[in-house]
Amino acid sequence: MQKDFDAVKTLSVEFKVKPNEVVAAVNRQKDQLKKLQMQLKKLKKDAWKSHISDWIASIEKVNGIPFGFVLVDDFGGDELRDMLGALLAQKGAFYFIISNCDTRSSFIAAASPELQNKIDWKAFGAWLKEHGLRGGGKNMIQGGGQRIDAGLKQEIMDWLN
After folding, report:
1. Are residues 73 and 149 both part of a single domain?
2. Which of 29, 39, 91, 95 is most buried, judging by how many CB atoms fall within 10 Å of its CB?
3. How would you list the strands of the sheet with 133-136, edge to edge?
4. Residue 40 belongs to domain spanning
């Protein structure tokens, strides 16, 4: 009981409210946190959407396959899928999108329908595994692994040749 009292007292001081107002103060903080997380998600989406035209302009043809490589930081799998969808909606290509976060990375690799048969997905998955990335999927690969640098772009281009 004393621990509970001490915890409430500490929170009361931290939030600068009376002890009987701690629950309401915590709930306000939770609501504010949720609102800020939603705002951050929207700002991140707006930020990556502003780069779509640049990413499309950077597509290079490799062995007859248009290839787009996107390296970003601090995006999750859902956001990478959204980026992929936006890119594929504007230009058909083979895309490799990777996001580094601290010492790890998440990635998605996919191609537009007309290029699906030009990519040996099983061989590409095995190649990625050799480079510290693991994933799975049908007609695409999504996964993660070690932190990756921009040098992977050239390595994938070499693999496509």
Report:
1. yes
2. 95
3. 60-62, 65-73, 94-101, 104-111, 140-146, 133-136
4. 2-49
At 14 the pLDDT is: 83
Task: For residues 56 and 93, state if they share a domain.
Answer: yes
List residues bridging with 145 in a β-sheet.
105, 133
Say which residues have a Cβ less than 8 Å from residue 46's Cβ, sequence separation at least 6. none
Instruction: Provide the residue-wise pLDDT of the chain in tens; the chain has 161 residues.
Output: 788 778 888 888 888 888 888 888 888 999 999 999 999 999 999 999 999 999 999 999 999 999 999 999 999 999 999 999 999 999 999 999 999 999 999 999 999 999 999 999 999 999 999 999 999 888 899 999 999 988 999 999 999 99
d(CA 155, CA 52): 23
CA distance 111 to 98: 15
CA dihedral 103, 74, 55, 43 (to 10 degrees): -170
Q: How many domains does the chain have?
A: 2
Q: Please indicate, yes or no, whether residues 25 and 94 belong to a single structural domain of this protein.
A: no
Question: What's at 111, amino acid-wise?
Answer: A
- Distance between CA 161 and CA 6 in Å, rounded? 66
